[in-house]
User: Fold Probable branched-chain-amino-acid aminotransferase from Rhodovulum bhavnagarense.
Amino acid sequence: MSRTVYVNGTYLPEEEAKVSVFDRGFLFADGVYEVTSVLDGKLIDFPGHARRLQRSLDELGMSSPVGMDVLLTIHRDLIAKNDLSEGMIYLQITRGAPSDRDFVFPDPETTQPTLVLFTQAKGLIDSPAARTGLKVISIDDIRWGRRDIKTVQLLYPSMGKMMAKAAGADDAWMVENGFVTEGTSNNAYIVSGNRIVTRNLGNEILHGITRAAVLQFAREAQMEVEERPFSIDEAKEADEAFITSASTFVMPVVAIDGVSLGDGTPGPVARRLREIYIEQSRKAAI
Ligand code: PDD
Assistant:
């Protein structure tokens, strides 16, 4: 069945949804995005995603064509129109489509930003990967220096997933100056005993909305949290590892560059945090 998607003020069947060839998202990757998960037909962590979206827009001198309250309504309309019970909502805002290709930003008075949202149905809770855990490889992080802005420049993360696939793994962790920054589309963590280590916030990583929630739940559960860089060598010695993102929640990692962690199965901390995250997010969903 065809999805109903949102494009610039209109709900359309996906086959009819179009943007201009001059759109700066298409020509310059001049756009930002958010992915918000949906459980039981409700939005997880919407206020966090809305805040980060506003920050991404501000950092790039862009604006949203509608306010965050209207964005919430559009998210809810799409859930209803597509009868979405579990999955994600993808949102993208670009600097719009001026009349020609030009590196210089268009005048916002005459060029409206483009706003697109669509649903993605996906089983998030009952995921086979959560039972087996993921295998990751390490790759160089050669992305730009403002990874804290959630832009649509995703070619290298996409190449990273392909490198992982070619190596018989599930995903890649990126390494810069000897330290892990993050996964291709997720934040990265290692666990030793009761201590969770994850990269501290900065321009080097995306400030994950799931990360913020999971670290809070971990602290509330009396786990120790250290926000600092860690190396692949340290990660290979860890008891366990995991990633977080809106589309995976907490997902165990069981091998790094072919080295199994612990007994090679999902560790207790990752499993516990996944349970807590799902339980608490369900309660707080809107
Ligand atoms: N990716 N780091 C990167 C590079 C990401 O792309 C993402 C999210 C995260 C986790 O952020 P959050 O917890 O707010 O989802 C970290 C989304 C899911 C995507 O691109 O599909």
Notes: The longest strand covers residues 31-39.
